[in-house]
Amino acid sequence: MQMDAFERACQQNGYKQIAGIDEAGRGALAGPVIAAAVILPSNCGIKGLQDSKQLTPKQRDHLHDEIYKVAVSVGIGSVDNRVVDSLNVLEATLLAMQAAIEQLTPAPDYLLIDGINFPAVDIQGEAIKKGDSRSYSIAAASIIAKTTRDRRMIALDRTYPNYGFQKHKGYPTSQHRQAIAQFGASDVHRHTFKLLPDN
User: Fold this and answer.
1) Starting from the edge strand earliest in sequence, which strands make up the sheet with 110-114, in order?
2) Among the CATH numbers 1.10.1200.10, 3.30.420.10, 3.40.50.1820, 3.40.50.150, which is that of 5-183?
3) Which end of the chain is more exposed for a tag (fewer CB within 10 A), N or C?
């Protein structure tokens, strides 16, 4: 299946501003959930757009800049760990997606969203399982969400140097869990998550 098949189908149905939406940080133990919404021009010509998890950090950084150069619009939604704790990670993710979509100018007329859940917005669209490897718009959003969040976590590393955020970006590595065991949870950790394994 071509990476532009969903976009082409939307265009054939008369939609013009098609936004891909994805998030980063759902599975992390610390930091925000970041969502990105990206409207690309048709035949945008960016080579190598694919699921951000399949790319090296260097490739992601390069594509991040390429996407910003050619995109019609990019929106970023951020929901911090306190909101994740007070709602739950799914609701927080949908809130971040909604915020990202609302930033787009022009407003999208169709949404392609990675996953199986749809945020509370009054715009036509569809949720696509594994969308970040099936749609170039969602792939672009996954790259923007991931690079934006990684940079936030690197910045948080300077404020909270004990946890190694620069390396693992808040995800549950053994190094991260050892730091939590040694220093306790910081105020950017998600306290409703299982921060330490059962002994």
Assistant:
1) 73-79, 33-39, 18-24, 110-114, 125-128
2) 3.30.420.10
3) C
Distance between CA atoms of residues 44 and 174, nearest Å: 41
Domain ranges of the chain: 5-183
How far apart, in whole angstroms, are the C-alpha atoms of residue 36 and residue 74? 7
Whether 6 contacts 134, CB under 8 Å: yes
- The sign of the CA dihedral 17, 20, 63, 25 is positive
* Cis status, amide bond into 57, omega within 30 of 0: no
Distance CA 161, CA 11 (A): 48
Tokens at 106, concatenated: 């022009």
Tens of pLDDT, residue by residue, the chain (199 residues): 588 899 999 999 999 999 999 999 999 999 999 999 999 998 888 888 887 888 999 999 999 999 999 999 999 999 999 999 999 999 999 999 999 999 999 999 999 999 999 999 999 999 999 999 999 999 999 999 999 999 999 999 999 999 999 999 999 999 999 999 999 999 999 999 999 986 4
Q: Are 20 and 136 in contact (CB under 8 A)?
A: yes
CA 182 from centroid of its chain's CA atoms? 30
DSSP calls for 6-46: HHHHHHHTT---EEEEEEE-TT-SBS-EEEEEEE--TT---
